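Hey all, sorry for the wall of text incoming. These are the two entities for the joint prediction.
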Amino acid sequence: MRVEIWNANGLVLLQSVGLNSMNEIEGGLRRFWVSMLMKRCAISFALAGWAGSLFGAELTSKEVEFFENKIRPILAESCYECHNSVDKKKGDLALDYREALLESDVIVPGKPEKSPLILAIRHGEDYEAMPPKSPRLANIIIKNFEDWIRMGAPDPRTTKPTKEDLANQVDWESVRDRRKEWWAFQPLRKSQAPPAKQPEWNGNVIDQFISAGLVKEKLQPASKATPAALVRRVHLILTGLPPKPEVVEAFVADPSETAYEKMVSDLMTTKQYGERWARYWMDWYRYAESHGSEGDPAIPYANQYRDYLVRALNADVPYDQMIREHLAGDLLENPRINAELGLNESAIGPAHFRMVPHGFGVTDAYDEQITFTDNQVDVVSKAMLGMTVSCARCHNHKFDPISQKDFYKFYGIMIGSRPAIVNVDSPELRELHRKQLSRMKPVLRRAFADYWLGVVDVAIGKLEASKLEKIRETDPLAAWAKLKGVEEIARRIADLEKKHQESLVHNEKTKSSATFYADLRDPKTYARWFENGNGLGEGPSGAGAFAIAGVGEKALTGIYPSGVYSHLISDKHSATLSSVFHKAKGDKAMMRVVGSKAQARFVMRSYPLSHGLVHPAAQLNSTLGWVENRKYTYWNGEKGYFQVNTGPDSTTRGGGDRSWFGVLEAYAGQGAMRDVGVPIVAFPGATEVIKDRTSLLEFYRTILRSALRAWKSGSMNDDQAQLLNAFVSRGFLPNMLKTLPKGLRAQVDTYRKLESEIRVPIRAPGVMEGEVWDQPLLSRGDYKKEEEPVERTFLEIFEGKPYSKTESGRRELAEDILRENNPLTSRVIVNRLWNHVFGRGLVASADNFGRLGKEPSHPELLDTLAINFRASGWKMKPFIKQLVMSRTFRSASLPPRANGDRDAENEMLAYFPPRRLDAEAILDTINHVATGGGGQRAMYRAVRRNRLDPFLKAFNLPIPTSTVGDRNLTNVPAQALTLMNGREVAQAARQWSERIKNDQSLKTPEARVRRFFLQAYARPPSAEELAASVAYLEGKVDDDTGRLREKHALVSASLAKVEKEREAILGPIRSKLQAEVDRRNSEAAKYKKPVDLKPIGRWDFEGNSDDSISGLKGTLRGNAKVIDGALHLNGGCLMSEPLKTNLGAKTLEVLVQLDKLNQQGGGAMTVQTVDGVTFDSIVLGEKDPGQWLSGSNSFARTEGFGGPREREANAKAVRIAIVYHQNGRIEAYRDGQLYGKSYRKASIHKYQADRSQVVFGLRHGLNPGGGRMLTGKIFEARLYDRALTMEEVAAAASGSMVEIVTAKMINDSLNDTQGAAATKLKYKIARISKELAGIDRELAERKAAMSGTGDPFYRFAHALLNSKELIYVH
Amino acid sequence: MSIDLKTRREFLKLTSSGVSAVALSSLINGNQAWGASKPKLHHAQKAKSVIFLYMSGGVSHVDSFDPKAALKKRHGQPMPVTVERTQFDANGNIFASPWEIGRYGKSGLEMTNMFPKIAERADDLAIVRSMTAKFSEHAQGNFFMHTGFPFLGYPSAGAWVNYGCGSMNPNLPGYVVLQSKRATTPHGGVSIFGNGFLPAATQGSIFNISGNQAVPNIAPGMLKSEQRRALDFIGGLDRKFAERTAAKDAVMASVENAETAYLMQEAVPELTDISEESEATKELYGVKSSNEHQAEYARQCLMARRLVERGVRFVELSCCSHGVGGGNGGNPWDQHGGLAEGHGKMAEQVDGPIAALLTDLKERGLLEETLVVFTGEFGRTPFSQGGNGRDHNPYGFSLWLSGGGVKGGQTHGATDELGYKAIDQVATVYDLWATVLHQLGIDHEKLTYRWGGRDLRLTDVHGEVWSDLLG
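and here's what came out:
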């Protein structure tokens, strides 16, 4: 390929562009080049004419100024990166100094319209859009370039720049300041609303601005919507539900201004208003109840946030307050209290921080932290500011004035708080009875001490008599257990003493080289930890702290050494306590703890989930001791913190009511801490006094007495506390409530009564303040490249002050977001609310006000609304009211003809924009008309990330990942299928049609149709619709059952024919085999006496599926077939006609062979009610693999027999009999032998004649399917209307001794030709059987259709629920 | 579209394939035809379709496509290098492979005898032995492998391929995920196949080929004849409504969708019916194998060919679980224990059917334009977990490509002596998708979609095409 490019002087600049070098040119630029080549001549001429001015003339200062201010910054910011003369020259194009620019031929001085550069930045056709992958440059910038070229492209850049020169020209500050010129960052500007000509468009600023816009665009406004349309519209917009017919009728009768205003006001005071608008907030804050990923772990108490939103919006909590609550509701000095529910509402606000997706069992904790923190930053910045701050994680924002540092400021603010479960009870409830109970405790302590001092001898007596097995050596009472019968007590005591001292020394030594050690008994240390909940006090408790049990037989839960305890008032109190971060080093992380149903963890990088693998949580127990975090070595090098929490405060699980913990120390490092405990030698004088068992016992008496005295006087030490606890916990000192003296018991009862009034706190997901965190900037977002920490403050364009060094910064962030110099917040929220009323924001990109977003359609209106919104106290209800009261809102939903095709997008709002309802409103509307109001709304359905509601998802429920201010409204056939065939609509149609059908006031079809219409569409039907509807309602179902029956007969016949053909081959062979078998059987029968057990049903499957005794016809379902004297189940089943007699006591007996042994839950033989609900069945492996079982509805009469696992039934047929005795006893037999153990669980179920049936192959139900099918063959079955005796069962089972001709025997006897023919016919039979089954199914469907869904009212309701008008707001 | 509805129905009824095709496409694409304008490719296309053999749970590369003699030699010895954090932290010593190493095909590709039938196709395989992932947990790994991001909300590769290449056959969904009774969705849920922020049209549609409802709500809730009458009645109401509102087009489009949905009720069962295939073909794949797991997977493989033949851009297959050693429905290859038994059964399940698929595609001349990709979300450790399993290993593992312009019988990259970490030509999922897109005629850096203020890519800001593997 040869290409020539000519410059002005006609010289060839580039020759022989080979294929290779062409390929090196970027694809896009190639087109750029080509287009340049196309215009080569023009360029040459033009350049020739202007050459002088470019190269020779002196530039004026004005020209230089123009270039420096308007041109150079743009070139530097948008072009140099790819087109420079230093290190990157894409498309062989450099724009960084005059000579290079001219050589590149991209400008034609004087002729902007001929300059490829201009065409490229204009995104002209055939030109690669420049700059690439960016929004088009602003019009003003393009105009500047055009002007500049028109001037002759004056360019003062005479020398080739160095690398440093280039870097200086694109410094962040200048780039940022230029980007700050984008409209969204400009201060709010108040404009005077232009008065409108028509009076109805005057008065509301909205209408005045909209009207002005229409006038400017020469558009006509639509006339007013009809009252009926308006009443439906305003209901759907404000509450997401259609109006009730009586409301419609009333408004249509009186559509006055007053009536409308009243309706609006009334709607805004309904609960449904809050439910509707809360769902939008849930979209903004990506509400979810689980974290997603493997296992989709739940976010405990997540729905508190949803309910909080509903309440807050109904109460019209101002938006600024909502922002404060969302960011720092837990820190507010004056939280919003809900006295009625006893809630601190504000504290629920931060729950959204916890709605992040989390990985499961992450092995890279830092990466996980970055991922979820990024998500928090993303959501907060988008939802509140309309900014994509998280785009600046790896580098400065590509388009907006947001620096990478800005991202890490937010990051630090987020990480300064920790994931937690928050107690959101009102302060009053949190403190309920605390003072009284606290006052009671010393009194109780003294009373108990007095009581126990009086029974010390009893306690010692009990100790003397006790065995104390399995006692720890470090227990104070261990000496009594261990030194029993040992003669050399003194030596053993010395040993104990030595060991004790060694342990103490060991622990001191280990501590001294610890990676981390905290003694929480020291108030100063405790003050450095972070606590949450109402269970923990101001500081650690001294020795002798004790807890009164709120429930149970015991009076005291325990008496403790000094430490931090969560349950000293009540174990319903909540508590979380966590340490500062440290970098893991060493092999042990341990906490010295005690507790019940509480957990201790080492939390990696604030990862809130725990599981058994690499994020374990230790469960605490009632013995104080060191508890280890098992995975500390694994996490060496990574940062984490210790945390202990009560069970319901677990971020992983939550739930439960009473739980508590005590914590004394935390340690991490090389080597383990030892449980020193309180061996007897810890008590002064032990070694001197204890000589033998008598002196030992005396010693106990002495130290117990002094411990009690010390406790009473409040001067106890830790060892004494544990000694006392040892006596109390073992009951040596009486602690049972009922044994206490009357007075003491009364005191405990009083305590308990007050304690019982404390409620289990209401909890919500949230965050708690943690270590203040200035996050190091991560170079290119890579955490392995940490740079300097970034001081927390607000976005740099708003020039805020640095944040506190003692708090996370969430409170300050809230204030900055609300600060007057920040125009984003108020614009973003008024635009969001506008968007939900009008279906499109004044700024169409509701979540992005940055450069990639849209510019406002009505900037003055937007600013005026934002200013007013702020000035009138950030109140949302009055604002939304102003929107729906506007004339703009009340326009009809059709464009006036006069407007033609202009403004097809309806940006100027000449008419109300009709649109499909969102997912929740569709479902709510359907259920609303079905129930006549009532039922649970869609917004309350669980939002589990991995199992989003299928109905809602079909209609664009957003995947909860990030902020969604504007939902998609796609239109796909899956939606039609959901409405046509889905369960929800069918159920609604049934309910709705029943309601109308049963309404006695509706006498005629016309009246009913009118009611249907009014309820569905809030309007009566037109005459035409009425006629069509009545015709439809009265129309006959197109019943082609007859035709199908004929077809059935035909196919049956052909099946019979083929079966006969096959039988022609197999028959003779079978007869031959049968003769042999009969001979062998009769030989065997000589030794047996035939017994007639009088079954009421017998199935032998000899050519049919009927019961040969009472003649019950059988119906084969699915693939079940009767072949060669056996029922082949193949995933199908056999169902009998209803039984002719009642059935109480009974016996089921079946001879069955299995296809495979590892089946689960299939039924061989069943008696069931004809609705398939109540049943007794011979089932394999439903509870324990391979075991036979008597199955029943919800296991009502089922327990395992505990018989052996079936191991033979695949190789041979086995006879299973289950006997149901009148008294409910059930026993099983296998081949005549008792199988496992009989049992009685419930009374027998009595099956009614005509309403019960026998089923084979299906555990129970109406159709084959699910995990209820048995696969295999059934050779014979019998049903008895009594409980057979063991002998009778054995006699019946002797039948299993009878040899039968099996399919295998026949197969083995076929020659090759016969075999091939038989196989071919077998497949043919299978195919025809399948067809037959299909016809059967269709016939059954028709039957069902005629009885249920064939109801004309149902059909009509179903049709309306499928109509589009129902799911549109217009 | 203003075709009279009744006429359109009749037209569609004329050809049964027409019915299924149009209907299925519309299920996914809707009437607001995304993909109506054919996207421009960036360069010549080598492959037209992708078959994604996803081995959920993580196939052990050191036991299959990256065999290591050193494992046998050093069996029972501690790992000589520092071991990274593993998911189960029950690391044992170096663990010899239960399979034998051999050389296969003319190219003499080295692999074990775990997949003897695939090995016979060695000269068609290009093995990448230096794959890496960033996550050692299933759900994140699955999302990462499919979307390039570790959690839900981003488009799956199949969606990107459809977005970038457009529809080859406007009558079929572009991205189909095959599942069957024992083969279900990997950990992380169906969003793994999601369209994220791309048009809904591009999302994966799951066909459960064992069930009677391959698509949710496909079974009619009332008599077909009655349903027809209902639709006609509803259509009448809807048309009048459309005339009264400015949303006329949207309303009419949704009327069309109801008609399409109606037709689909028959079309879907037809499409998933393989009875028209010859006995020889069924035999080749093993759809009647007495090994039911294998038979199920064989049906998926055969279905994959049928779909590719009909112009589906991206077909993803799902493995059946045997429930061995940690492997369950979502992660059948996950043998933390019982490696020999579990991987043995899994390999037996897929080996024959996949080899048959390659053979069949080749014989039909489809392999040249179909890129087959075989991979899990990560590999497994060369050291043991517990007694006889292996833990997750995202630091080095293998995948292979076949067909679609890829030259077989060669390898790319390598792991260390023990197969623990990729050390040569380290490869990423971004590279995989860059290569796949490249073969489909797309420059992965240019395939972008603006969302949340960013121009997002399947390959994020990474990705190098494995040009050495291309023919």
